[in-house]
Amino acid sequence: MKNAKVLVTGGAGAIGLNLIERMLAGGVGSVMVIDNLSSGYKNYLPDDDRIVFLKADIGVMESYRKEMEEFKPNYVFHLAAHFANQNSVDHPFKDVQANIIGTMNLLEISKDNEALKKFVYTSSSCVYGNAAIMNEQDYIYPHETPYAINKYTAELYVKYYSSMYDIPAVSIRVFNTYGPYEPHGAYRNVIPNFIVRAIKGEPLFITGDGTETRDFTFVGNTAQLLTLAALSEVTDGDVFNGGTGKPTRIIDLARMIIDYTESSSEIVFKERRNWDAVKDRLSDVSKSGKILGYEPETTLEDGLRKTVDWYVNDYEIGE
Q1: Is 271 exposed, middle or buried (0-12, 13-18, 19+ CB in 10 A)?
Q2: Does residue 303 surpass a pLDDT of 70?
Q3: Partner of 198 for a Cys bridge, out of 146, 186, 261, 313, CB 3.0 to 4.6 A?
Q4: Architecture of domain 183-214+246-281+298-314
């Protein structure tokens, strides 16, 4: 993407920030960041003249259509979302507005952009529901949460616009991404909350019995895959898994974080949330490896150490 013009929605979030750093290092020409800062942090954006920031809500096309049409990006990375399952349960209409209407808005603008080389949509592993091993060819019927429903619906719209309007597109199903620039708090992932609580010496709460597994993916690996997808020859809106293909038990994750933070925190078990019926989530990344050349660069152990280091040295934990 050397000298290319790139648009990143949700670019002030953890995945977007790490992706932008990767592209800047690779010589990208300019980056337009669109983010409403509902869960992103503008102050983490690199101090680089190639970055243009626009505070806008993707669910409201009028707030950014003119700027995007004038910018004419060569690549669009659509990362912005009304994030998290619990958040979608609590606010289902906001989830529709961001994850479906927002995606359609971007596709509507993109269909008239002759300079566009690739539209990369970030979907979620939540679309798989309670499947044992999650393969792109499996039949899925997501219905567990509004977030799962809406991320899958947006995938279908990406496929539709690719077929109907020849938008060169690809979708990536992201699996439990973690890493620097992700704050802790309500609706956030388990890893930042575990790390912050461990640093403070507070109990680490596990909802369930701890034998549940997830495919935890370092954010650098996710940025790697998104870049590979953008530069690939895939243009028909096909879907590819992120992830690592390696499961980790939540109890083991908690123990690793306690170890890496040298914490005295205890592990406390709580009742599983009523919407959380997925015991195990594991990605099959064989298709991504074969077609996109994806091989995760960073192991869980190295990724966790890098993430802990960021929270210890660069993150303001507060009270």
Answers
A1: exposed
A2: yes
A3: 261
A4: Alpha-Beta Complex (3.90)
